[in-house]
Every structure is written in C-alpha cells, then in structure tokens.
Design a protein that fits this description.
Length: about 190
C-alpha cells in the first residue's frame, strides 16, 4: 500500500549561539536531523540575516525556509520539530525571546487547523496580545506568516507560487505587499 505524503512548509530561525556554534551552523545541523526522520526534504532556501524583533531586543536572526514531504500528521510533524528544537537547546521561557533554534510549521498541505474561525482569531490578534499569548493547539496555516518578511523572503526562494490555504494568495504576492523597509531588512548571507 502506498502511503500518502503531504507537503509541508517550515520556517527556520535562530539568533543565539549554541556553545561555540553560530546560528547558521545550528540551522544546518537541524536540517540534517530533520532529514534523518520520516521527513523528506524537498527544498531549502538560502540563509538570511534579519533584525531581532522587537528592534534592539537581541542579536540578529538567521532565517531560512524549507519544504518537506511526510507521512506524519501535522501534529506529529510539529512534535518532531519540537524534539529537534529541544536537541539544539531551545528553551521556551519567553515568548519571542532569543533562541538557538526555532522551527515553525507554516502550512501542511491545504489544512486549516483546527478550523477557519480559530485560525482567523489568531491571525487577527493585536500585537500586544500576540506578545503575551500563545495558542494551546496547532493553528495552520501559521496565522502571521503573511506579515513576516523573514518568512516570506526565504519562502519565495523555494516556493514563490505556494498558495496560502485561506487567502489563496501566492507567497510572491504576499511578499510584494510588504513594505520596502521590511523587505530591505532581510539580507542574504
């Protein structure tokens, strides 16, 4: 029996060294670890340097994106990504704080999880609530990917024609809606 493989899109980032390793090395090693699981890597973007958010809140980030195929469910894939983060010393003490590794599941096929209403609630949160609150369940597509140059620019490297499961817009269209300041803040390494 042939197992169905779903395409998923993942954002990678980090801004803190892990021992003597720079974030670029951590991202590269994390990609290798992900590939050793039941996850087939299809494409990986260039690495980019992006300013910490909020500005001045820490060292610059290194960001990338990748597409994968997997037989895992969305929840099981997220669990695997969290295991990889833990292996690379990710500490979850502060929302949007510095981190050695951050792996965000951006989308999983065309899934809208857990449903359109909950997705919209998290997408539409004001900034102060976003800083203080995190969902207790998987929300897909990632509710703020359309607002983030550090996600969309790497995503366009490997999937400019990727279509947002809710809006139907391509990654390229979403990227082109960002301000020129947002776009210019993301520099290829």
């Amino acid at each position: 029996m042939h197992e169905i493989r779903t395409t998923a899109w993942i954002a990678l980032g980090g801004n803190l060294p892990r021992g003597a390793e720079k974030p670029e090395r951590t991202l590269s090693e994390a990609i290798e670890m992900i590939a050793s699981r039941d996850i087939q890597i299809c494409s990986i973007s260039k690495f980019y340097r992006t300013p910490c958010f909020p500005k001045g809140g820490g060292p610059d980030y290194v960001n990338a994106a990748m597409s994968v195929k997997t037989t895992l469910s969305a929840g099981a894939l997220l669990t695997e990504l969290h295991h990889v983060e833990t292996h690379f010393s990710r500490v979850r003490e502060e929302r949007w704080g510095g981190r050695t590794l951050d792996l965000d599941l951006l989308s999983f096929g065309n899934a809208i999880l857990p449903n359109l209403d909950k997705y919209a609630k998290w997408r539409d949160l004001d900034l102060q609530t976003q800083i203080k609150s995190a969902p207790d369940e998987l929300i897909l597509p990632h509710p703020r990917l359309q607002d983030r140059s550090f996600v969309l620019i790497p995503l366009c490297d490997i999937g400019a024609d990727w279509s947002h499961p809710v809006s139907g817009e391509t990654a390229l269209n979403l990227r082109d809606r960002l301000s020129s300041e947002d776009i210019s803040s993301v520099e290829a390494l």
